[in-house]
Amino acid sequence: MTLSDVAREAGVSLATASRAINGSADRSVRPELVERVTEAAARLQYTPDATAQAMARGRTTTLGLLVHDIADPYFSAIAAAVVRTAEAEGLQVSLATTQNDPAREAQLIDLMRRQRARAVVIAGGRSAGERSDALAESLAALGRQGVGIAAIGQPVPGVASVAVDNRGGAAALAASLLDLGYRRFAVLGGPTDRVTARDRREGFLDALGDRGSVASSVETAFTWEGGHRALLRLAQDGVLADVDAVVATNDVMALGALAAARELGLGVPQDVALAGFGGISTLRDVVPTLTTVTVPMDELGVRAVRLALGDQGDVVESVGCDVVIGGSTPDLRGA
């Protein structure tokens, strides 16, 4: 059965049948005609074409989600919340990974535009400078086409954003460790051009004030391998013997550092204390429990979808973090 058959059965024009079934971006159909057409379609067991519906309405029922790496527990938690929230709104999620590649990110944004996505959520830390400006321009072009957009991580100019208070969370972590008696730290800082890593590193360092000091701050990849290599480097340079605690700017790096410490025969926290940032779900299986700053990933995903569907312009919603003290940083005050 074709749409022409439905139009003939309902006694209406092909254009009217199309508008009644597929919808229209600028024309409406009287309710009685819509009823006639839908009844005819049911009798003929006609199945609408999704592409035709998208062309007629000017957009699909797809929400595009771009993340750096779905294998990262941080992004998988956000993706789960986005999918659940989008499905509750009758939308399907099209997921793609950028691998933190600006060129690929731009290509995927353009693909979402050509596929007439209803909305797009882009999750992940941004890099400073020209790469951030290019992203803002790509998203602005998407927005001019009427696609709802939201960013997760840091604010993007002109785009509704759900921002994590990375500086505040890192400062709270520093204060908590100082209160436990820690004074000398090594920081696994992540890439210097990554805004998330920079904000967490600077937030931690600024909060130390004159109560503590940093023996070393290592630039490394924002990955398990990056944390692993960084701790091995600290051990090779003899830094570990002079610090109370190692602080990683994300939990995945902290887990890599934990594995490296064990390879070196070092106990955590007996020989070196360790803290991370993020509160990823896999920490539940880690022994000792890792001290971290929890980020409400579920809330990030829910808020981002609602902002994207609500077409909120460049509003920025900030989400706070909480410090959770685990067995990896015991209280030193009684030692």
Automatic annotation (TrEMBL):
Keywords: DNA-binding, Transcription, Transcription regulation. The keyword Metal-binding does not apply. InterPro entries: HTH_LacI, LacI/GalR-like_sensor, Lambda_DNA-bd_dom_sf, Peripla_BP_I. The keyword Ribonucleoprotein does not apply. GO terms for molecular function: DNA-binding transcription factor activity; transcription cis-regulatory region binding. Residues 1-57 form the HTH lacI-type domain. SUPFAM superfamilies: lambda repressor-like DNA-binding domains, Periplasmic binding protein-like I. PROSITE patterns: HTH_LACI_1, HTH_LACI_2. This is Transcriptional regulator, LacI family. It comes from Serinibacter arcticus.
